[in-house]
From TrEMBL:
InterPro entries xref list: Glyco_hydro_19_cat, Lysozyme-like_dom_sf
Residue span(s) of domain Glycoside hydrolase family 19 catalytic: 207-373
Protein name: Endochitinase B
Keywords, ordered alphabetically: Signal
Signal sequence residues: 1-26
Gene3D superfamilies registered for this protein in UniProt: 1.10.530.10, Endochitinase, domain 2
GO-annotated biological processes: cell wall macromolecule catabolic process; chitin catabolic process
A Pfam family that the UniProt record links to this protein: Glyco_hydro_19
Keyword Signal in annotation: yes
Molecular function as annotated in GO: chitinase activity
Superkingdom, natural source: Eukaryota
């Protein structure tokens, strides 16, 4: 029986509709592939035999503890498409040439544990002109591109013996190679430490300290000055996939870990970034840095995603120049403020050029567009993030410090240790942290007299607020009696408050408030002891 014209038209319409739906969701496939290519994620990538990589050291131990997440976070949607086979295909040279291995810092399990702490990583798809498939993969392409620059093998000799496309396929599979800055044999390590074991980063010479110091930093993120002979243990040189560096970043990451009920002292033992496995931190610290804004800088993830309006705002001058939306270029400003553009030669030099070329290669591997070629570099971006006149941090509210009431804090247009996330410039999930950060700033006022140089006779808010702050912290401790890690941390805070307030009250002659506070502290400590040891 012959089909009528309208039946044929109807069938064709359904077929066309189905094809459009598939295309809209990014499910188009380039497979099957031509000879010398293989199918990865429905995309054809060059199947090349790379030269044998030089392996450093004696390799991983035979036995080790498995990577483990104490919080048992649920699987990320990322795991449904980015598999262990793909991870191993992309990073065959990881861990000094030995490849992904459970006994070394870089492996698939460590990667997915990190991803589970940031559910938006590789899974977010806003309405930004790209499909869901493209957004997921561009996000990972950006992260991996920065890892190539920071810790890649970066063997330029590949281009002497192979054609460019083959050399690309081997060069950009060199990510996650190094552990330590300047590795594999970092000049920061003692002569008897080869850098071929993750524990080799426990000590460094003075050049590797990377310790920034001033009154604020010394209060919030103090460097460890512990020494072993001529070498320091407080070494904050670059470690991990995209090289977490300086005590400020180690301290901020440590603070975030506390918020996740992961208690680790990275300021005292920074090399735990490479050796801890419960959870593993070498990749988690880098994903944290990639996903977290630090005013005036947005998060790299938010730039490449341009999630909803207000998640990263480039400002009118940059918008006029085309620098807005889901673009790669400004992400290079976040790590090392590099904006030199892309080299014409291959593989080109380090810095922004390598980041751009790596991003292009990973996008090609994943079968997704890079975006506007001119916006892959931040070279022509008129205003850099430091040029913005936004509110950046919480600082003491000088207009009220003379009043007989607790000190307050307000947003300021200069940087500090406690960030302020200006609405319209940062994601809502960070804007919601502002009240918590304001309270943290208020608490810090009582410890930072040396910094803010308050005159105790005129800055009445300090002595008035000590008692109220102690009560507030006591109530918070009461609400977290089942969290032993928090109890330890908060009890230390209460002791610090008592010591500082004692000095304040003795100098300001506020004996009545001192007596009230002493009575409160004794009663509360008796109660806490009874509840805890009952």
């Amino acid at each position: 029986m012959k089909q009528s014209h309208w039946e044929m038209a109807l069938c064709f319409s359904f077929l066309l509709f189905f094809i459009l739906i598939i295309k809209a969701h990014g499910f188009s496939s380039r497979c099957p592939c031509e000879p010398d290519y293989k199918c990865v994620l429905n995309n054809c990538v060059l199947n090349v035999d790379c030269p044998t990589v030089k392996k450093q050291g004696n390799g991983p131990p035979k036995f080790c503890k498995d990577a483990f997440d104490p919080n048992r976070r649920p699987p990320s949607k990322l795991e449904s498409w980015f598999t262990e086979d793909i991870f191993n295909d992309l990073f065959p040279k990881a861990n000094l040439g030995w490849g992904a291995n459970k006994c070394f810092p870089y492996n698939y399990k460590a990667f997915i544990i990190a991803a589970r702490y940031f559910p938006e990583f590789g899974t977010e798809s806003p309405t930004n002109g790209f499909t869901a498939r493209e957004n997921y993969r561009r996000d990972l392409a950006a992260f991996f591109a920065h890892a190539i620059q920071e810790t890649g093998e970066n063997d330029a000799s590949l281009y002497s013996n192979m054609d460019v496309e083959q050399a690309h396929a081997c060069f950009y599979r060199g990510g996650f190679y190094n552990w330590f800055e300047g590795g594999p044999g970092s000049s920061f390590l003692p002569p008897n430490s080869s850098g071929y074991s993750p524990t080799d980063g426990d000590k460094c010479n003075p050049a590797g300290r990377y310790c920034s110091t001033n009154a604020e930093l010394d209060h919030f993120y103090p460097c460890s000055n512990e020494q072993e002979g001529n070498y320091y243990k407080g070494c904050y040189f670059g470690r991990g996939a995209i090289q977490l560096s300086y005590n400020f970043n180690y301290g901020q990451f440590q603070q975030w870990l506390y918020s996740q009920n992961i208690i680790v002292d990275l300021l005292k033992n920074p090399n735990l970034l490479m050796t801890k496995v419960d959870p593993p931190l070498a990749i988690l610290g880098s994903v944290w840095f990639y996903m977290t804004p630090q005013p005036p800088k947005p998060a790299m993830h938010d730039i490449i995603m341009d999630t909803i309006p207000g998640n990263w705002e480039s400002g009118p001058v940059n918008r006029e120049a085309g620098y807005f939306g889901p673009i790669f270029g400004p992400t290079s400003l976040i790590i090392n403020n590099e904006c030199s553009g892309e080299d014409q030669s291959e593989p080109g030099g380090p810095g922004e050029s390598r980041r751009i070329k790596a991003f292009k290669w990973f996008c090609d591997y994943f079968g997704v567009p890079t975006g506007d070629e001119e916006l892959l570099s931040c070279k022509n971006m008129p205003k850099k993030f430091g040029d913005f006149s936004n509110f950046l941090s919480f600082q003491p509210d000088w207009s009220s410090t003379w009043k007989e009431k607790p000190c307050s804090c307000a947003p300021a247009q200069y940087g500090g240790m406690i960030p302020y996330f200006q609405p319209g410039y940062y994601p809502e999930r960070y804007v919601r942290l502002n009240e918590q950060n304001r309270r943290r700033c208020v608490q810090s006022n009582y410890f930072l007299m040396e910094i803010i140089k308050m005159n105790l006779e005129t800055k009445s808010c300090i002595s008035t607020g000590c008692f109220k702050m102690a009560i507030s912290l006591g109530c918070t401790i009461h609400d977290n009696l089942n969290n032993e890690h928090y109890l330890f941390f908060a009890s230390q805070q209460l002791v610090n408050i008592f010591k500082r307030c004692f000095v304040i009250w003795m100098k300001s002659m506020h004996f009545k408030q001192f007596c009230h506070f002493t009575a409160f502290s004794l009663i509360f400590l008796i109660y806490l002891t009874d509840v805890t040891f009952g």
